[in-house]
Automatic annotation (TrEMBL):
GO terms for molecular function: UDP-N-acetylglucosamine 1-carboxyvinyltransferase activity. Keywords: Cell cycle, Cell division, Cell shape, Cell wall biogenesis/degradation, Cytoplasm, Peptidoglycan synthesis, Transferase. Residues 2-403 form the Enolpyruvate transferase domain. One of its GO terms (biological process) is peptidoglycan biosynthetic process. This is UDP-N-acetylglucosamine 1-carboxyvinyltransferase. It comes from Parafrankia soli.
Amino acid sequence: MTGGTRLVGEVAVPGAKNSVLKLMAASLLAPGRTTLDAVPDILDVSVMADVLRGLGAGAERDRAGGRIVIDIPEVVDATADAELVRRIRASVAILGPLVARRGEARVALPGGDAIGSRALDIHMNGLTKLGAVVDVEAGVLVARCSGRLQGASIWLDFPSVGATENLLMAGALAKGTTVIDNAAQEPEIADLCALLTAMGARIDGAGTSTLVIEGVEGLRPVLHRTVPDRIVAGTWAIGALMTGGDVTIRHGRAEHLGIVLEKLVGAGAVVELVEDGFRVSADGRPRSIDVVTLPYPGFPTDLLPQVIALEAVSEGISLITENVFDSRFVFCRELHALGADLRTDGHHVVVRPTPRLTGASVLASDVRAGAALVLAGLMAEGTTVVRDVHHIDRGYAHFVENLTALGAEIRREPSSVAAA
Ligand code: EPU
């Protein structure tokens, strides 16, 4: 791509990656056809569909229409394909539903982005409290229980998104009441609660840090629309501010980006609510801001690389602190190659202003780092090449096409087209 253009125009945000993958896993709880709408056209959805097919489910996808119909048989297989599971972290979300329905689940330790150690102890301890016996056997997580899971009170050590989701889905079919305290409060979890409730689950406290679930004996399949992707919306908002552009983000939910938009306004953005979305415009060089990531409603870790890229082109010094993952700063090396002045120390990074970024060849190491490097490339003098862009395909549908429509000078080399 060649740097120097402002992003101007309109972009539509699809359903959230980090919701739809869990909604797909939740379909395992109800025999029959679950239909999900606003499904993003991203690689991870294809992989998750294959995971479900491997368990005996049907999965028919209308990619252009953003719909997937998942057909769950009366008896699902309890063993997930290890190679597929290792490709996406979200595949661990089948653990709770499988053990709840089958009394057994065998799921290889999942993969995903190289952003930290990403333990599963909170998932395992929670399922144990619900009466399952959970072990790791030769790299495979095995959970078993004889009869139904039993409701229990569970206090999470950390409001883990994935653990909250697994325990919510397991608790939905457990006998009696499950209480999850210190639960994650991300909008994607409220979306999962909405799906489960429509399926017949009894859940109190959706969107809060205490979830109370009265287990039921069975759930039914439904039609559900995925919540819009707040991280994709936030990425466009940061891109608009960085390039001094003007972007209307349709389906963007400003209420899911409270602290993010407040920070961007502090950096000089003008944010205006419009019908079914919001608009972000800016003029001139952004002012620097300090950012601390935290579980929702704190500043999302999934916008950390994008905000570091923003700081690299801002005036003033900025201090960014990452509190969720332990290796999210590996991408700073690539940003440095574009001329950014960064210094990392533990879970902090100090970003100092530079007169300009300059084009270089850089490597996307995960989905958000990839998006951030593309945004930085839009601001770099000369040509920037971002390699390994299959990472971006994991979370951003039609990223290059959207950027082109917003006026960016960017093209995708045929060799980098990922097979989705
Ligand atoms: N953790 C543990 N033990 C556990 C679970 C988590 O120590 O049993 C730690 C992790 O190592 C990590 C922290 O807790 O340091 C947060 O992990 P969490 O479980 O909340 O995250 P996740 O479920 O693995 C999801 C998203 C991530 C997003 C985080 C935080 C999906 C598929 N992934 O991961 O999304 O960053 O929540 O919001 O939903 C992305 O989309 O780029 C992405 C990485």
